[in-house]
Amino acid sequence: MASSSCQSEGLSEEDYDLIHGSESGWVDARTSCHHLHSLSPDLTHIPTPNTPCNRCQHPNENWLCLSCKDVLCGRFVNRHMLQHFRETNHSVALSFSDLSVWCFSCDAYLDAHVIQQLRPVHEMAYVLKFGELPPVGAS
Ligand SMILES: [Zn+2]
Ligand SMILES: [Zn+2]
Ligand SMILES: [Zn+2]
Q1: 116 pLDDT more than 70
Q2: I need a surface site. Which of 24, 61, 82, 96 has the fewest CB within 10 A?
Q3: What residues sit around ligand 1, an ion, with C-beta below 5 angstroms?
Q4: Where are the domains of the chain?
């Protein structure tokens, strides 16, 4: 009796991105992470979302390292953010394409609405990207 639940298997990467890019409720986002100790102490001053990748100058949809505020491209481009993590062990990065936060050490998205240390930088990135504060979470 294989009454399998319809999980999101067999989705293309595009679909996967669409799901993860939705405005609220990232699939499987963690509400805690043990790698936040390396976050930059000043995350209210961050590069703008259209900052190119520091290494290959890829123009958009880059990631912001939340430890050193380097801007690097993602896994669908040249994976410079992943390289950066391997070189520096800076685990936590914010996506300038959908403002999600990814922890390379947890290998999971982090919920920036729940995790206190991430909320200010998420809000700041939102303001830089959209020119206004994120809507207050009226569930
Ligand atoms: Zn790059
Ligand atoms: Zn870094
Ligand atoms: Zn983590």
Answers
A1: yes
A2: 24
A3: 53, 55-56, 58, 73, 78, 80
A4: 28-130
